[in-house]
Amino acid sequence: MQLKRWLTVGAVVLAAGGVAGAAPATASHPVDPSQQSLRQLGMRHDLYIGTAVDMAALADTADPQYREIVSREFSTVTAENVMKWETLEPTRGTYNFGPADELIAFAKRNNQKVRGHVLVWQNQLPSWLTTGVSNGTISKDELRDILRNHITTVVKHFKGKIWQWDVVNEAVSDPWDTPSTLHYKGFWAQNLGPGYIADAFRWARAADPKALLFYNDYNIEAFGSGDPANDKTQFVYDMAKALLRDRVPIDGIGSQGHLGTQYGNYDTIQVAAALKKFAGLGLATAFTEVDVRSQMTAGVQAGDSNEINPRLQASAANYSVLLQACLADPHCLSYTVWGFTDKHSWVPGWFSNPPEGMATIMDENYQPKRAYNLMKADLIHSGPPYVQPRIPQKPRR
Ligand code: XIL
């Protein structure tokens, strides 16, 4: 009896403390929510907050802060590069799982879920594959076998360790491509036809029945991008609907969320409506690669606050739009940023003419920007009735 009473009191104290490592809250000293991490605040809504991880930065012993922030702030991680084909299978039939396994081990130690990125994509393919196809030594039939083998081997290797797989990435063209009418683009569609998408999901499901299987793309944050006949979000919606009609095991849509402050972008209401429409098909959603870049004008580079402040504000507002929209739909399971510090961001390397940068939530010295604090505020100042806990997705058979 005595012991039981003690246990009950202990449980109450723990519950009041709320978060591991935080001092117990009391009426006179409530927990200050702004001192909690993104991952702790996300858990108020069962929402996983993630980041892409650069394995070189994670391993850098001279920079322990990177590792410390990945573990403190995030409840899910994505390999920025080491699960891509060129890294996993640099030579035909020879797999290099080492770097990806390191991330899986890190995530396990830190109680984080892993998003698998990526099984099928037209970029970062090994040259044995692309050259073999272009010089005709790999036939179309053989290419299909190669794809099935790769998916099966990779998904089986990580079986039970991946929460969400990006099965197919960026399969749809953009209005600025030729032809401008939206179509299935890139290496796989050109060589195998669009049927590879359904195949990929079926092969992935056969190799791991429990991982959630996602289609992932950019510029699909909201419906209504310009010409309604050329709306990429609508195209992806129609694709998902057709896949479900054909009983293809797709569980979710990943919206990458690569935005720029120089564009018009969307508001929370529009983005929430898109997520709800995908949920209406019975799909989960996730923001998978959020970053909001800005043009690095001469003024920005010279430190002119008149130019820097509006960029910081616009960047924060866009991070917030996507996060609020995700909070608004209980089928939106995770919100992942594509790197969390300007010290390690793909943006300056990829968008160099004109130069772009300032895309992440912390600066090069790991100082939080207002985007970081706005994300925290969104997670703190939201809840029922309009923000409900996440509804877990069951893998479709
Ligand atoms: C990027 C990485 O961040 C870079 O380091 C790499 O050089 C190129 O790829 N969409 C995706 C991601 O799905 O895999 C890309 O990642 C960014 C765009």
Automatic annotation (TrEMBL):
Record key words, sorted: Carbohydrate metabolism, Glycosidase, Hydrolase, Polysaccharide degradation, Signal, Xylan degradation
InterPro entries assigned to the protein according to its UniProt record, in alphabetical order: GH, GH10, GH10_dom
Catalysed reaction, written as an equation: Endohydrolysis of (1->4)-beta-D-xylosidic linkages in xylans
Catalytic EC class: hydrolase
SMART domains for the chain: Glyco_10
Pfam families the record matches: Glyco_hydro_10
Family affiliation: Belongs to the glycosyl hydrolase 10 (cellulase F) family.
Name of the protein in question: Beta-xylanase
